[in-house]
Design a protein that fits this description.
binds zinc ion, alpha+beta, zinc, SET_dom, 3 domains, zinc-finger, transferase, histone H4K20 methyltransferase activity, Beta-clip-like
Length: about 400
């Protein structure tokens, strides 16, 4: 771990990265005090990618920043299956101008929310990943790779091979590949035993064969002499486990942004009642038509957020308020200067501490020793609990 490198990224922020101990590794600490509700900082990912099924089902997002590209009303119509939905108070829709949207001029397929995003994508990775005029051909190696991934990783999606493809392309295109490699090497790695566990979770029983197919297709798509270690069978498995355990889920939605704005606005009582019942009905229709799949979804690697340790009674939470992959870290308690900032990797409403521990072990491979778990483990067990110990129900929160 290179603390100097983190200092560079936190120099203008009210946080610092510190080494804690061998068991906990590094952590993120407040260098100011904060009140409940305060925004502490925002962070952009080093790299992010939309999930491939999410993209396949026409959730339109900027290829670089994952901004949701539909306007709120179009999105509400698609998700509810009702082409006649008219949103009240459109003044609370994003004012982001669709005239800014651009396609990659070469492949004419990848969409960006602005020429800035297009330029950054081309500079960082898209030159290596752009299929040029071949992009429509399903037998193009990149499209084959994406299809292979979709066929072995069904929704609910937790990761994407495009994250790895972009990482490799970033190294290929960097002025100094070592700079980029150094950034990616800051993310924590799991042991070889645990790699198999993560791979099993990602791909099921056939994971050994599946990983080998992916590895060969990736080498074929992006031949590179700069990352030879990543392309060995062991190195590739380790890389998959790294994005599996460090990848932060991302959700963006023009409609959610509108709903948040409306929710925060002040209306006359009668108008407020009307808006609330309108939105309740709309959410019910969306739920029936689209289930839980309401957002543009993907995952990304965030240098500072990845330093946040878990606590079952967290003092900060992560939100996506800007309708793109920029995350906001917000205080959900009062925080004093010097205090460690902890998020909950799971749904912290789960009351049974044994169940929380089982989910954390299954998904994040550690035993939680937070204060809440320590206190609750000392208390007598309730005789019956509505939360069963059913190990099939391993939901991961966001
Ligand atoms: Zn963008
Ligand atoms: Zn292109
Ligand atoms: Zn805990």
């Amino acid at each position: 771990m290179d603390l100097n490198l983190f200092q560079f990224f936190t120099k203008d922020l009210p946080v610092e990265v510190k080494y804690i101990n061998n068991a906990r590794g590094k952590g993120l600490f407040a260098t100011n005090c904060f009140n409940e509700g305060d925004e502490i900082f925002k962070e952009n990912p080093l790299v992010c990618a939309q999930f491939l099924w999410n993209e396949f089902y026409k959730y339109e997002a900027c290829e670089y920043c994952l901004r949701s590209l539909e306007d709120a009303e179009t999105m509400a119509r698609r998700l509810s299956g009702n082409p006649n939905v008219v949103l009240p108070h459109k003044e609370y829709c994003s004012t982001y101008a669709m005239e800014n949207y651009v396609k990659c001029p070469r492949c004419q397929v990848t969409m960006y929310c602005s020429s800035t995003c297009l330029e950054k994508a081309v500079k960082e990775y898209h030159r290596s990943l752009c299929c040029g005029s071949n992009n429509c051909r399903p037998d193009h190696s990149l499209n084959r790779l994406r299809e292979t991934w979709r066929n072995i990783h069904y929704p609910p999606e937790t990761s994407s091979i495009m994250l790895i493809a972009k990482m490799i392309a970033m190294i290929e295109q960097a002025d100094d590949p070592m700079d980029v490699l150094k950034l990616f090497s800051q993310f924590s790695r799991v042991t070889a035993n645990n790699e198999a566990h993560v791979a099993h979770k990602l791909f099921g029983k056939q994971f050994v064969e599946q990983i080998e197919i992916l590895r060969l297709e990736l080498i074929n798509t992006l031949p590179s002499s700069k990352i030879t270690e990543w392309y060995t069978p062991g190195g590739f498995r380790s890389l998959l486990a790294m994005i599996g355990t460090n990848g932060q889920g991302i959700a963006s939605s023009s409609f959610s942004q509108y709903a948040r704005n409306v929710d925060a606005a002040k209306f006359e009582k009668q108008e407020e009642d009307y808006i609330n019942s309108f939105l309740d009905q709309l959410y019910a229709d969306m739920n029936e038509e689209s289930g839980d799949f309401l957002d543009c979804e993907g995952s990304g690697l965030y240098l500072l957020q990845s330093c946040c340790n878990h606590d079952c009674s967290p003092n900060v939470e992560i939100n996506f308020l800007d309708n793109n992959a920029t995350l906001t870290v917000k205080a959900i308690r009062n925080i004093s200067e010097g205090q460690e900032l902890c998020i909950s990797y799971i749904d912290s409403d789960i009351k049974n501490w044994k169940k929380r521990q089982a989910i954390l072990m299954e998904n994040y491979l550690f035993e939680c020793t937070c204060n809440r778990c320590m206190v609750e483990s000392q208390q007598p067990e309730p005789l019956s609990s509505s939360e069963s110990e059913d190990s099939d129900d391993m939901d991961v929160g966001d």
